Amino acid sequence: MDVNKEIRWRIITLQAILVVVFAAASGFAFYEGSFVTSMVHDQLVAQKISFPPASAITAGGALDPATFSQEIRDQAGNQVTDGNQARIYANDFINVHLQGVANGQTYSQVSALAQADPTNTTLAGQVATLFKGEMLRATLLNSYGWWTLGVYATYAGIGLLIATLGVLGMLVFELFIAGRKPENIKVAQKIAA
After folding, report:
1. Which of 131, 137, 147, 154 has CB atoms 3.0–4.6 Å from 94's, for a disulfide?
2. Is 0.85 topped by the overall pTM?
């Protein structure tokens, strides 16, 4: 066997292996992306969290335009069903309300004050409210993070599928076109003419 044929078959073997590896990786990325986004969706739907209705977009209402962003007002009346909605609800709804509980202080700050003054019922109430609110906010932001990973895994699956098709195209070229001898191609062109 001559050197050119050996190199050609090594290239073909490498391309075939790459097609299999890229196809498997693409399938895995699609599966994981679908699994993660479906899991986040199902868990959020089960919680039955909804944005206030559109009728609440009034001055002094639950979605007062002076206080709440357009992003959350666009979600008015919707149920939280995906990671992006979870992020909006966490940052633009819960966080806005938490800012008003103790003049913008966090759970850890108010908790330290409450420990220094254990008889202060106002601080104790603020600690409980901030803890619950920050935990719900953190959970929703965690859902957003996983949702984002699922979406990116799907994009990776698309990229790997494109790479698979590219290498498959090169493999087909190598098998059926590149291996032809130039004189055979010239004869075939003369016959066709």
Report:
1. 137
2. no
